[in-house]
Amino acid sequence: MFVSQLPCSFLFIVRDASPGEAIVNLTKKENADLVVMGTRGQGLIRRTVLGSVSDYVLHHTNVPVIIHRAK
Q1: Which of 20, 12, 16, 27 is nearest to 52 (CA)?
Q2: What is the 3-state secondary structure (H, E, C) of 35-70?
Q3: What are the angstrom distances between the C-alpha of 39 and each of 4, 7, 24, 26, 52?
Q4: Residues 6+ apart with CB under 8 A from 61
């Protein structure tokens, strides 16, 4: 089976919570099987000071997370 033939859905929602919290809460609400997200590839110091949405989601959700780094 090709990836393009796998059943999937996409959901875009604007929330007042922080982006990481909103994604984690949405995975629970929608009973998601997987989270796929991108990253900007911030440096270590900047990521440490500002935090990272992908890092937050990776450590706070119970479903697999795929993080794609843009080139």
Answers
A1: 20
A2: EEEEECCCCHHHHHHHCCHHHHHHHHCCCCEEEEEC
A3: 23, 24, 16, 19, 8
A4: 23, 24, 27, 35
The 10s digit of each residue's pLDDT in 40-58 is 766 666 666 556 888 899 8
Closest Cα partner for 11 from 39, 33, 42? Answer: 33
φ, ψ for residue 25 (rounded to 5)? -65, -40
**Residue 17, SS3 per DSSP:** coil
12-23 tens-digit pLDDT:
777 677 888 989
- Domain extents for the chain? 34-71
| Tokens, residue 18 | 């922080």
